[in-house]
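Technical annex, item 7. During the second reporting period the consortium partners agreed on a shared format for inverse folding records so that results from different sites could be compared directly. Each record opens with the tokenized structure and is followed by the designed sequence. A conforming record, contributed by the partner at site C, is shown below for reference.
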């Protein structure tokens, strides 16, 4: 009997072991992090009424769904490890695909892992203060190129490094093990949200809600601009919805299971987000929400009293941990696909013969993420590359148009519902976010473009090496 994980030529490959529940929990677990617990207070500053707050969350969910419907077609047609990377490669060639993978490894995914690791440490410090990111072990004055700054290491950073390396190591021992951990923490975080929603709307000590759409009498222009700014914050809370496509090569019956995970996962997250915001609105007047970062803690205290802050901190901690584990699982599949194309270190394309995971890819990602934790610059780097990551996401969605034209005979077990309008809507509104990011943070946007351009000579090196190996 042949081993389904052994490819032609005897190369050990990835194995499809993730079922429909695994894929859905992984998708939802990656997306639901700290965003839903922290962004509504910021959103209330730009969308200053209860109906507008709920509307912007519904809009964010619907727009994410347009992307999910499109990615379902791409993932079903090309159910391989790599997601974005594969779609961009097939539609536009290896250079733009490599640049996407380069940015993902250099900052996009690894920086997110560092940020989640540090956030997890910060919420742990609510219970064990020693792990705080403000508990510095040492501070070192540094002078470099005429610039002076202080470099410091905190116990929170070291804790984040340990957690990242432990999870990376654990995920080497089989995608099923990682999926089990993911399933447990995703079920916990969803259950916690449902309890919060149910208790908040039934026994919580709320206040009458003002359902006026425009209580401040703002002009239509200001309302539209504010809604757009609020949506940028909402889009961050939905970030990661397409990462499940990175592990398409390990999902059973991807045409069915990946499609379900994308669509059902997005719909479920939207419902949870809207209901959670309904609790926030019931707990506090919108004016009292504005600018409050830890909105979940503030509203919980108003509804249930001071002890609720501890419960919410535990809920966010669980949520962030699940998001961290899921992100660690999916990222290495992109670098694996790059290396399999000869555009990254050869070892990264190797699959562990026993555990059937991209072990070296997990190690590379874990070590680099840990180093970013220690530099303390990951937040600035993430801000720089967000512009580029949004651009590549637009390119990936647009590839559905390109591939329908250039490869009409490609098997498509699922076709995007509402094509061409659904992917077109995603592209139009995402382009609006792209332009808003460019105007609001031009320095960071151009810095991200600069980091991407640095990848071009790196691509040429790997491309030349691949040709030499082939000849």
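Designed sequence (site C submission):
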């Amino acid at each position: 009997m042949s081993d389904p994980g052994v490819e032609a030529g005897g190369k050990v490959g990835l194995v499809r072991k993730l079922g429909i529940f695994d894929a859905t929990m992984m998708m939802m677990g990656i997306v639901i992090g700290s965003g839903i617990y922290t962004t509504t207070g910021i959103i209330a500053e730009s969308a200053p009424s209860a109906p507008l707050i709920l509307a912007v969350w519904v809009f964010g969910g619907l727009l994410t769904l347009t992307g999910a419907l499109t990615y379902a077609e791409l993932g079903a047609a090309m159910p391989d490890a790599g997601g974005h990377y594969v779609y961009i490669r097939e539609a536009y060639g290896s250079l733009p695909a490599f640049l996407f993978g380069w940015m993902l490894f250099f900052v996009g995914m690894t920086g997110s892992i560092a940020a989640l690791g540090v956030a997890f440490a910060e919420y742990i410090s609510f219970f064990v203060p020693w792990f705080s990111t403000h508990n510095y072990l040492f501070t070192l004055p540094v002078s470099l190129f005429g610039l002076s700054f202080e470099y410091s290491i905190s116990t929170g950073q070291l804790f984040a490094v340990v957690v990242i390396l432990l999870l990376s190591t654990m995920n080497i021992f089989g995608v099923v093990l990682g999926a089990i951990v993911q399933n447990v923490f995703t079920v916990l975080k969803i259950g916690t949200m449902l309890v919060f929603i149910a208790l908040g709307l039934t026994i919580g000590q709320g206040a009458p809600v003002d359902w006026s759409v425009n209580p401040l009498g703002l002009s239509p222009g200001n309302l539209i601009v504010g809604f757009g700014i609020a949506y940028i914050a909402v889009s961050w809370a939905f970030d990661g919805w397409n990462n499940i496509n990175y592990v398409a090569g390990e999902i059973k019956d991807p045409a069915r299971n990946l499609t379900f995970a994308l669509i059902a996962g997005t719909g479920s997250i939207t419902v949870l987000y809207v209901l959670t915001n309904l609790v926030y609105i019931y707990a506090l007047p919108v004016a009292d929400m504005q600018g409050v970062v830890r909105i979940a803690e503030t509203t919980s205290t108003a509804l249930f009293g001071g002890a609720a802050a501890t419960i919410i901190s535990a809920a966010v901690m669980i949520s962030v941990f699940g998001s961290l584990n899921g992100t660690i699982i999916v990222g290495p599949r992109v670098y694996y696909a790059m290396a399999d194309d000869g555009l990254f270190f050869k070892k990264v394309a190797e699959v562990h013969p026993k555990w059937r995971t991209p072990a070296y890819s997990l190690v590379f990602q874990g070590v680099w993420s840990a180093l970013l934790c220690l530099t303390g610059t990951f937040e600035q780097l993430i801000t720089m590359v967000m512009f580029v990551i949004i651009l590549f996401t637009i390119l990936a969605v647009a590839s559905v148009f390109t591939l329908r034209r250039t490869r009409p005979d490609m098997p498509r077990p699922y076709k995007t519902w509402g094509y061409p309008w659904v992917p077109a809507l995603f592209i139009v509104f995402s382009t609006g976010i792209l332009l808003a990011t460019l105007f609001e943070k031009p320095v960071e946007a151009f810095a991200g473009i600069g980091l991407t351009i640095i990848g071009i000579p790196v691509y040429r090196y790997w491309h030349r090496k691949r040709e030499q190996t082939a000849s």
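DSSP finds 17 helices and two strands in the chain. Residues 124 and 400 are 43 Å apart (CA to CA). All partners now use this format for quarterly exchanges.
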